[in-house]
Amino acid sequence: MNEGKGEQSSRKKINYERLAVNMAVVLIFVYVCITLVKQEITIRKYKAQIASIERNIKSEESEIKVLRKRIEEAGSLESVERIARERLKMVKPGEIMYIDSQGGK
């Protein structure tokens, strides 16, 4: 009868060892899954940031194009003449400027 108890206790020991190994495998699997989910969330967040930055870059590039065009236009002779006449009230040599004293009424 003592031998029967010895066999049962060794079986229980093996079952506990197997259970411990299985639990360790399950815990490692759960840890890996949680880590992968966290990494996926982080990757999606970074992708959204990249997309936002790329949109900002495109917007800034289009604004740069507009400003460069305005700079080119401002340097043209026609533009310089228009600004001189409108803002500085300048006239060409020999021209006479008429001012309406009634303000257009």
Number of domains: 1
Q: Tally the helices: what do you get?
A: 2
Backbone shape: rod-shaped
Biggest pleated sheet:
none
Question: What is the arithmetic mean of pLDDT?
Answer: 86
Which structural category do the helix and sheet elements fall into?
Answer: mainly alpha
Beta-strand segment tally: 0
Q: What is the N-to-C succession of helices and strands?
A: HH
State the helicity in percent bands.
over 70%
Identify low-pLDDT runs. Answer: none
Query: Whole-Å distance between the termini?
Result: 128 Å
Oligomerization status of the protein chains: single chain
Organism: Peptoclostridium acidaminophilum DSM 3953
Transmembrane segments: 20-37
Coiled coil: 36-77
InterPro entries: FtsL/DivIC
How would you sum up this structure in a few lines?
With 105 residues, the chain is mainly α. It is built from 2 helices and no strands.
Write structural notes for this entry.
By secondary structure, the protein is mostly helical. The protein has one domain (2-86). Helices cover 79% and strands 0% of the residues. It has helices spanning 2-74, 77-86. The longest helix is centred in the middle third of the chain and has 73 residues, at 2-74. It is rod-shaped, with a radius of gyration of 42 Å. The mean pLDDT is 86.
In terms of topology, how is this protein built?
Layout: H1 2-74, H2 77-86
Tags for this model:
105 residues, mainly alpha, 2 helices, 79% helix, rod-shaped, membrane, Septum formation initiator, FtsL/DivIC, transmembrane helix
